[in-house]
Amino acid sequence: MTHVDMLKSQYEAFPYPTNTSSNGGYRELVNLVKLLRLDCGYHLKGKRILDAGTGTGLRLLELAAAFPDNEYVGIDYSENSIACAERAREAFPGAPVSFRVGDIMAADLQGGPFDVILCMGVLHHLQRPAEAIDRLSRLLTTTGVLIFYVYGEYGSGERMRRKRLLSHLHGDELGQKIESAKHLGFTDFPYGWAIQDPTDVDPMIVDAYVNHYEVLYTLETIGKLVSNSLAACVPYGFTLERNGLLVESRLNARFAMPVARTDPKSKLNSPALEEAYAKLPKRQQLLVLEDMYAPAGYTMLAHNGGFLGEISRPERLTSNAWQ
Ligand SMILES: C[S@@+](CC[C@H](N)C(=O)[O-])C[C@H]1O[C@@H](n2cnc3c(N)ncnc32)[C@H](O)[C@@H]1O
Prior knowledge:
By secondary structure, the protein is of the alpha/beta class. The chain has helices spanning about 5-15, 30-40, 60-65, 80-90, 130-135, 155-170, 175-185, 200-210, 220-225, 265-270, 270-280, 280-295, 315-320; strands at about 50, 70-75, 95-100, 115-120, 140-150, 230-240, 245, 295-305.
């Protein structure tokens, strides 16, 4: 079996995320879109949205319920995940979402153009992620945006340690790894979710600690994924072990929103260091921030320039652009 086949059968057996009432819903996409509105003045209305690698679609359904004046499409190559998504939809009557089985890497990926393409937690599992970004970028409108989330190398040390430990113990024995993860207490997931329903734990363990194929990223390697396909690439959020931060690289940015963000000024904590930081080119400033915060994940926005015309406050995005 190839890595690709193993990963697919893993998500067939353990569709992700599971449907639980105990975690208060999967609100991450809703929160992200609310942030984009508050922070940049982007309004999700009258848009077509693709969620590429939607899994069980729970995050997309929450988004569609919160912002119903749009058209949503969720695709995943796992038939079982899409079947779960169809069942989950019953709890969201009238949500404007359609789900279908589809492979991001398929030559005939169709259905565009889309104003927003989401690809959250998927690219780091692909063997040819730059090709995936290229395929997805061809489905974007000229004013569209690709929003993706990938794991970060610098903040994944503890998760990787646990993952290695399970591999040393049990090789590829999935069932044994899951049981041992429970014995070892690897059930405090690094996403800040309190999972109470025991049936929800196994897919979380599989995703976090048993995954067959994942690559960890840095700003440098993320930039290389995007550079051939889209003109601009901006780190929007850093995920840390237990929380998320908006990325702010400016030293004296005015920031009215009560949202946690990276803060180079408070970290540098000295006029001489601030001066040195202020003289750095933008990419270098972002690299300093990256090492200050050591993200476990990156939420990125990538676009072809037209997207900036869709938002009323582009300053933070333009000032934080990696590319
Ligand atoms: C970690 S889950 C993320 C699910 C969802 N995006 C979320 O954030 O909750 C990764 C998903 O990507 C899907 N996936 C991986 N490779 C894919 C591909 N080539 N085409 C479509 N889906 C894929 C898997 O089946 C799985 O459901």
